[in-house]
Amino acid sequence: MEKILVVDDERNILLVLNKFLKQEGFHVETARSYEEAVSRLADSGFDLIITDMRLPGRSGLDLLKWVKEKTPELPVIVITAYGSIENAVEAMKIGAANYLTKPIEHDEMLAIIKHALIHSHISVKSQTGYQQEQYGIIGNSRAIQDVLSAIDVVSSSRANILITGESGTGKELVARAIHNASQRREFPFVAINCAAIPKDLIENELFGHEAGAYTGAMSKEIGKVETANKGTLFLDEIGEMPLSMQVKLLRVIQEKEFYRIGGNKPIKADCRIIAATNRNLEKEIETGGFREDLYYRLNVISIHMPPLRERKEDIPLLAHLFIKKYALENQKFIKGIDQMAMDALLSYDWTGNIRELENIIERAIVLTKQETIALDDLPNKIINKGSGDAVSKGITDLSGFKLDELERAVVLKTLEEENWNQTRAAARLGITRRQLRLRMVKYKLI
Is the domain of 177 the same as that of 297? Predict the structure, then answer.
């Protein structure tokens, strides 16, 4: 719930705005002077300020200046009289998010408030507190804290690093974090996905070629290794690299040099290599799919990126981050996500990890017609977490079932037949949608 401070010396205006904004779902506090507003701002965090230009003593413009000095990201909307538009322009120059002219139209006010909140850079609050972010990596879980500690330790070294983890866990994010915290941060970070490049082109991608090296090679081309000189070369999905290229990469690591295609002069390569894989490379070595000597050259230090199902306490933080991102992109005012929808996210196994969560939140932002993401905004695979015992057995013999089991089975079967459309399911069952949702909660169907 966004928290708004309304500042005006007229008691009636404060009462009217307080009632209106609370009806719209905001938490509202009021102040009647510059001094009272500053006192309240010092004691408690707000998401937005609405202030009249005219205040007893120091003005709303003075309050705006104070706010922009202390918390420049906090949006301030200024109320001004119709004949004082020049003051509003001055306020906008100082940093006001927008202005309202008296008499105030509530629809206009609500639109301006939502616009200001969408475009503010205030840290998104989640149900567990402010998001924890370091190196662009979000999470409070022990698993993520271990990753962050590892980044702190290894970033100052020159050792090659192997990052392991399932697809979508954020392995490239870790690689960039290591580079940005290292002494090489002033030089290029160059990423290449070994799985995305055809096998016959990967050598050219890595090492480049000389003019005339092959048909169509009209001029010299610099490869990724040379581009990453003095910086970091990130080799994603290293397990997909052909064996023939693994030999040449090993030479780069051992000799710190390589040859362009068609070249006969060795080129020095001073780049740190960070590799990543979602494969078990030790098993690949056993089956002959990966060179053992290259593995040990790359795996000087290993960092494991945990799957999302092993760090579910981070889901609320990540979900609210993505809500902010895609609400802004889609120019929609989204307050957050309701508890039932969040519970569904927490119950899901997330085989696609963070990438899948981001996709689900983006989809919900686009499709929702509400200001809060609800269970109905999520896809069926998130909502549907299994079948009931009675349905799985088939309701042909009612003996042996308790009343609750039968009711659960009927509700579940109706929901499945209606493709989890709660409105249609409730109509078929002869109950309201709210009564259906209460039964779904009771029987753990959401």
Answer: yes
Burial of 412 (0-12, 13-18, 19+ CB in 10 A): buried
Number of domains in the chain: 3
In this structure, are 297 and 330 located in the same domain?
A: no
Q: Please tell me the distance from the alpha carbon of residue 385 to that of residue 412, in angstroms, as a whole number.
A: 11
Q: Is 127:100 a contact under the CB 8 Å cutoff?
A: no
Distances from the Cα of 147 to the Cαs of 101, 167, 300, in angstroms? Answer: 51, 17, 16
Name the residue with tokens 């990890």: 353
Are 27 and 54 within 8 A, CB to CB? no
Alpha carbon distance 109, 52 (integer Å): 13
- Distance (Å, rounded) from C-alpha 332 to C-alpha 323? 10
Look up residue 249 and give its amino acid.
Answer: L
List pLDDT tens digits, range 204-248: 999 998 887 777 777 889 999 999 999 999 999 999 999 999 999
Quick one: 299 and 164 in the same domain?
yes
361 Cβ contact list (under 8 Å, min separation 6): 319, 322, 323, 326, 373
On whether the pTM is more than 0.90, the answer is no
The rounded distance, in Å, linking the Cα atoms of 19 and 16 is 5
Do 314 and 289 lie in a common domain? no
CATH of the domain at 107: 3.40.50.2300
Domain residues for the domain of 349 are 310-442
Measured CA distances, 143 to 112, 146, 165, 408 (Å)? 41, 5, 12, 37
Q: What is the DSSP letter of 218?
A: -
